Structure formats: structure tokens, C-alpha cells
Amino acid sequence: MSQLLFILIAALTIASAFWVVFSKNLIYSAVALLFTLFGVAGLYVFLYADFIAATQIIVYVGGILVLIIFGVMLTNKIADNRISHSSLPRFMAGMISFFIFILMMTVVFTTTWHTGEVQSSQGTVALIGEMILTDYLLPFEVASLILLAALMGSALLSRKKNG
Amino acid sequence: MDNLTSYLVISGILFSLGLFGVMTRRNGVAVLMGIELILNAAGLNFIAFNRFGGMHRLDGHVFSIFIIVLAAAEAAVALAIIINLFKNLETVDIDQADRMKG
Question: By CB atoms within 10 Å of each CB, which of A145, B22, B71, B86 scores lowest?
């Protein structure tokens, strides 16, 4: 049962990722991205990363995807949201990404990964909170500064210029 | 199926698709979607290695949170830039944003 569910979620993720990249219509791409993000959140659940799965859904689906759809709506007329031909020839781009994929799969299947005991299911939230406020305190504060800078920068960039 | 290799294969596929999207799309928003796919692949790798790599702590989870934070900041700034591009050039085709070219 669990195996079947894993295969279903993996297939959903990959199929909708294909749809994101190959769809001619940007709105369809955005909707397919929704399913990809949900699929990745499901994979996080399979990896016992409950907090990351919730964060993924809240931030990506609730935030970034809405931003992207706003971007599509604001920059396209409804009639002509078709995507024109690519700058790089599709065939060449496909060959490059396929080559990189083969390279990565060679590494994945020929390396003997160090696998210790598999982590059991435990609550992750308390441990993550503790780590963020002890070992990763500096990156945490830097991340908050980055968010502040991005907020101010994007507000400044997208306001109306008057005078 | 629930082992390290299958997760690595899934994230490899996601990464390659994102790379293909970034290389072939001309619309700025579509390029952004490809970047989101790549970032998701990276986050999935971190979590998979954290679970199967014999770690007792959750460093991978913390890294994944930082990836999500950076993705949010990046999406906000990128969309502001794209909307500005549209206001100024009436297009979001990133191949036509070459005004600074000599």
C-alpha cells in the first residue's frame, strides 16, 4: 500500500514537472507546477520530514505559486499567453540536460553511499527549532535580513514612479 | 522503492527538467518556474541524504528550510524585475532585454 502510494506520488511529481516544462500555455504550466510542488511535499512526508512538508505547502503553494500566477496574469494578455520559440535550439538544450541527467545517474548508481541506520519516525519540529536557535543561529539571522532586503527591494522596484 | 536511490533519481529528473526549462523558455516567468524545479530537486536531495545517510541530527532539514526561504526571496525580486521589464519594454521575452548591449 505504501509502495503503491510512493510510486503514485513520484509519478505525479515527474509527470507534472514534464507538463511544467513542455506546456505551451503559461497558465497550464503554473497549474502543473502546483501539482509538482504538492508531489514534492508528499515525498517529504515519505521521508518523515513533516515540518518541511508543511513549510513547502505553505510557502511554495501559498506564496510563490500565487506570485507566479500574478506574474503570468500581469504580463500576458489573455489571448496571447503562448510561448514563442526558444533562444537555444530545443534539441541542443535537450541533449545538454539529458547528458547531465545521465552523468548524475551514473554517479548515483555507481557510488556506494554511506548508509547508516535509517532515521525512525520522530517529531522533527522541536529538534529543528533547537538547531536553528543554536548551531544555525547566524544563518537564521542572515536569512531574516535577506527576506527584509528582498521585501524592500521588490516593493521599491514595483512601485509607481512619480516625479 | 523507499530507498535513497529512488529519491536521487526523482530529484535528478526534476533537476534536468528544470534545466531544460531554463534553457529553452524565453518568457521570464517560465524561466522562473524552471528555477523553482531545480531548487525543489536540491531540497529533496538534502532531506533524502539526511534520512538515509545515518545522521542523528536534522541538518538537512535546516538546509532545506533555508532553500525555501531563499526561493521565496528570489521569486519576489524576480517577479518585480519581470513586471518592470514588461512596463518598460512591453514584453517579458528575456531575449529582448538587451538594451545595455553595445
Answer: A145
CB-nearest to A116 from B2, B53, B81 is B53
Domain boundaries, chain B: 4-96
Tell me the chain A residues in contact with residue B37 when contact means C-beta distances shorter than 8 Å. 17, 20-21, 33, 36
The 10s digit of each residue's pLDDT in B43-99 is 999 999 988 887 778 899 999 999 999 999 999 999 998 888 888 888 778 777 777
Distance CA B96, CA B91 (A): 8
CA B84 to CA B96: how far, in whole Å?
A: 14
For residue B47, what is its C-alpha cell? 532531506
Q: Which CATH number fits domain B4-96: 3.40.50.720, 3.30.230.80, 3.40.50.10490, 1.10.287.3510?
A: 1.10.287.3510
Residue of A nearest to B74 (CA): A150
Complex ipTM value: 0.90
Q: State the residue for C-alpha cell 526523482.
A: B10
Name the one residue in this structure whose C-alpha cell is 513549510: A55
